[in-house]
Amino acid sequence: MQTNRIDQPSVPADTVLHGDCISIMQSLPVNSIDLILTDPPYLVDYRDREGRSIQNDSNTDWLIPAFSEAYRVLKQDRFMISFYGWTQIDKFIQAWHSAGFRIVGHIVFRKQYASKSRFLKYQHEQAYLLAKGNPALPENPISDMIDMPYSGNKLHPTQKPGRSLHQEARSDS
User: Potential cystine with 161: which of 48, 54, 74, 148 (Cβ 3.0-4.6 Å)?
Assistant: First the structure.
C-alpha cells in the first residue's frame, strides 16, 4: 500500500479489496476515496432458480453502518452510485440520508431479458446517484438510461454492467 501526505495508508487506483465492507472501510482514511460504486444486498431474501442466496440479503443490521462508513471515506464533493432493492427503497433512502448523502440522480440499466416475470416483466436494474457535498456539474452528463448486455456470468446471480457504466462515462467525457 502507498501512503498519502499524512502517512496514512491509501489504496492504489483501480484496486479491489475483498472482505467485510464495514471492516475494510474502517481501515481507510477519512476522505480518501474518489468514487464508490456499490451493489449491496437488496434485502429481499434472494434465491435464484438453483436455490443460491446472497449473504445478508434478509438482514438490515449492516445498512446504516456500511453507508455511514462509505460517507466517511468518500472525498468531499464526490459521488456514490448505489444499486438497491426497489421493494426496500425506504430502508436504503433512510440509510443514505442518515449517513449524509443527497440523492442527485437515478440510473436505469435496461436489460434485453426479464430476470423475473410477475405483474410486470422485470427488465431493468437501477441505482441512485448520491452526492457528498456539492460536486460540480459535468460538462457532458451521462445518460440516466444505460443498456445492460447480459454477461452470461453463471457464478454471480445479479451481475452488474461495470463495462457499460465505464464505457458510457468515457463516451460522454
Answer: 148
